[in-house]
Design a protein that fits this description.
two-stranded antiparallel sheet, globular, transmembrane, endoplasmic reticulum, Lipase maturation factor
Length: 364
């Protein structure tokens, strides 16, 4: 419910402004700024959900055995949960490792300057949510998370789904030889990122193939103290990463009404979206200023619940941010998240049993 409240409030900022209907278009210069907040919400949701599983010290999460209980002890399992529960233990443990990777490591790619890395992050998040939908009923939550994940896409990629992509332009670029230095560096960085993800997963979770038993061994190869030390070291830098990403988005949006060109890695505005005329450029700039201010304010107050994952980092925030958050806390426009902090039903889920008897001897 907290996620629905926050996503609903962000929809007010993301939805098109139709004050001047005769000049309204599908695209506006500040769209990227407000839509960035959706990506930031998705990041906070996924990263915190992965982190709290380890900070809770739950033995099943640390032992990578959480999913050996989850499918049969969750509130409303689906028919697919029965089949998932029959999977071998080594696969269940590897599934927990994959969950950690998707929830802790992959969200860092949400702000990557390389488009393909963001697409990789999108499909990773969607894969996790689809698997949860197939094995458990959590109402609208997983569908809402998939909707938030669309903030990682751009118009060109969605156009491919709809059959509206600029195939000629794309094919001509792909056939260009030799490739530009930017393309080479981008590919090298992308491959390095995938390699680092694989290396990080192997080192942190002791992944090792047992060829004799034909299974994949895994175990947590770090201690609780090491994890909390790492978390304390990265929390504020992640805030800085979010600030830099937002600043770049704001500066790019400010340039577009006047230059009508893209400064960022994003594709240029759609045809016909260029702002013509000094008055309309000023009007677009005014909208940009209003929405940019609102976005910065939302980002600032969201830092308080986000840094709940490390209270030392939370105490280092500027006191004014805490005052801003306290002023709007009752509206729940920003929240802290942490899904499945502890695995429930490990010792068996309590069941309500009603019994009756006619003779006080035989009970039904």
């Amino acid at each position: 419910d907290s996620l629905l409240l926050e996503a609903g409030f962000l929809a007010v900022l993301v939805a098109p402004l139709r004050l001047l209907k005769w000049r309204s278009t599908a695209w506006r210069a500040h769209d990227g700024v407000t839509f960035w907040l959706v990506r930031w919400l998705l990041f906070r949701l996924m990263f915190a959900s992965g982190v709290v599983k380890l900070t809770s010290r739950c033995p099943t999460w640390w032992g990578l055995t959480a999913l050996t209980y989850h499918y049969e002890t969750q509130c409303i399992p689906t028919p697919g949960a029965w089949f998932a529960h029959q999977l071998p233990v080594w696969f269940q443990k590897f599934s927990v490792v994959a969950t950690y990777v998707i929830e802790i490591a992959v969200p860092l790619l949400f702000f990557a300057p390389i488009r393909r890395l963001r697409l990789f992050a999108f499909y990773s998040q969607v894969l996790l949510q689809v698997l949860i939908i197939l094995t458990g009923n959590y109402n609208f939550f997983n569908m809402l998370t998939i909707v938030l994940a669309f903030s990682l896409l751009d118009e060109e990629h969605v156009g491919r789904w709809l059959g509206r992509s600029k195939r000629r332009h794309a094919s001509s670029e792909s056939l260009a030889w030799p490739p530009s230095l930017r393309a080479v560096l981008s590919t090298l960085l992308e491959l390095s990122t995938y390699g680092f993800l694989l290396y990080w997963s192997v080192q942190c979770f002791g992944l090792e193939i047992d060829w004799e038993k034909r299974l994949l061994d895994s175990k947590v190869a770090f201690t609780y103290h090491e994890f909390t030390t790492w978390l304390r070291a990265v929390t504020l830098p992640l805030v800085g990463l979010g600030f830099l990403s937002l600043s770049w988005e704001i500066l790019s949006a400010m340039y577009r009404p006047w230059g009508c060109a893209a400064l960022t890695h994003l594709p240029p505005p759609p045809p016909g979206a260029c702002v013509r005329g000094c008055f309309w450029k000023l009007w677009a700039t005014l909208q940009w200023a209003v929405f940019a201010t609102a976005t910065v304010g939302m980002f600032a107050i969201s830092l308080v619940p986000f840094t709940y994952i490390d209270y030392e980092s939370n105490g280092k925030l500027w006191p004014g941010i805490h005052q801003m958050f306290n002023a709007v806390e009752r509206f729940q426009v920003v929240n802290s998240y942490g899904l499945f902090r502890r695995m429930t039903g490990v010792g068996g889920r309590p069941e309500v049993v009603l019994e009756g008897s006619y003779d006080k001897q035989t009970w039904t």
